[in-house]
Amino acid sequence: MSVFQRLSMIFKSKANKALDSVEDPRETLDYSYQKQLELLQKVRRGVADVATSRKRVELQIQQLEQQSGKLENQSRAALQQGREDLAREALTRRSGLQSQIDGLKQQHEQLQGEEQKLTLAAQRLQAKVDSFRTRKETIKATYTAAQAQTQISEAFSGISEEMGDVGMAVQRAEDKTAEMQARAGAVDELLESGALDDVSGSSKDDIQAELDRMASSSGVELELEKMKQELGQGSGGAAPQLESGSDSQSQPNRQGEGA
């Protein structure tokens, strides 16, 4: 196989593939049916034309037979009048008409045979066209149903892919929602336990602050009372007087004795 033959084959195969991709079988069937109808119409016109010719020949035969009958009558009348020459002339003309009539009858028989053949062909073609129309409509309906099923399947396939993406998005949203709920619950627990309270005390309420102040004052009073007891200044006790002179310098402080 030469290079040009291979290129031609490749081109034809690609052209056929391109045509198959754009061809709609329903349109092709309708086109074929239309062509068959046109052919049937031509056959019917042929039948009509033959029938018209046959009818025309029949009329000519009738006219010639009428003329032949008239000449025969004229020939008889001439013989009755003793004019044998006129009778012979009339019969001679009648013989020529009969020759034409015989030729027309043969043509009429041929036209009848042709008309019968065309009529039978038209009937057969009509049956084929009717059968093709029924088959065409069935194929078109089946193709339309298959095309719709294909489109539905493709649509469901696309929906399935989109639903997969939607499902993943929903799952991510649910995961984030659960995470946020968990964090909110943990923060609530920490707030209830006081773990997140401000160490500076700024977040404490007024009651807690007042309690803290009362506790602090009570501690101060207790510490003050303790110091008083250590200094001998118990409840109502007088402080010892310091002696003047050298004794006050030589003797140690006796504050501890009253302790």
UniProtKB/TrEMBL annotation:
It holds the Pfam family PspA_IM30. Belongs to the PspA/Vipp/IM30 family. It comes from Nocardiopsis endophytica. Residues 243-259 have a biased composition (Polar residues). PANTHER family: MEMBRANE-ASSOCIATED PROTEIN VIPP1, CHLOROPLASTIC, PHAGE SHOCK PROTEIN A. Keywords: Coiled coil. Residues 47-128 form a coiled coil. Residues 203-213 have a biased composition (Basic and acidic residues). It comes from the Bacteria. This is PspA/IM30 family protein. Residues 193-259 are annotated as: Disordered.
